Amino acid sequence: QVQLVESGGGLVQAGDSLGVSCAASGRTFSSYAMGWFRQAPGKEREFVAAISRSGDTTDYADSVKGRFTIFRDNAQNTVYLQMNNLKPGDTAVYYCAAKLTIFSTRYYVTDIDMDIWGKGTLVTVSS
Asked: Which of 82, 92, 97, 105 has its CB 3.0 to 4.6 Å from that of 69, i.e. a possible disulfide?
């Protein structure tokens, strides 16, 4: 089973870009589909982006489509989320999550599907 550690959060201004990453321990990272979720203060956790085991297929929440990019490096056991044109509404704790799956091109967009979670990294976007 992998363990996930997010990094790269911080305070930025609206319109800025920021990348967050999620490093996985263990040797089976490529067996997991990965996802990013976020939780803003006082709100429920929501889906942000997902990527398949192979990295060939991705999906995004409508609110971030065209601004965020998810990608992974299986050799480095890391999944990334590049966030461009950030808005104050993107302020949240960003969580990385993993889903063990036999399907190389499938991704998962609901938090109840995910098996393993990181502790999160805070992204704050000021106006």
From this structure: 82
The sign of the CA dihedral 22, 62, 110, 91 is positive
Q: What is the pLDDT of residues 9-37, one digit of tens each?
A: 999 999 999 999 999 998 799 999 999 99
Residue 27, pLDDT score: 79
Q: Which of 55, 50, 4 is nearest to 26 (CA)?
A: 4
Give the list of residues 6+ apart from residue 90 with CB closer than 8 angstroms, or none: 38, 64, 83, 123, 125
Q: What is the pLDDT of residues 49-58, one digit of tens each?
A: 999 999 999 9
Cα-flanking dihedrals φ and ψ of residue 31, to 5°? -90, 0
d(CA 6, CA 53): 18
Amino acid at 47: F
Neighbouring CB atoms inside 10 A of 48's CB total: 23
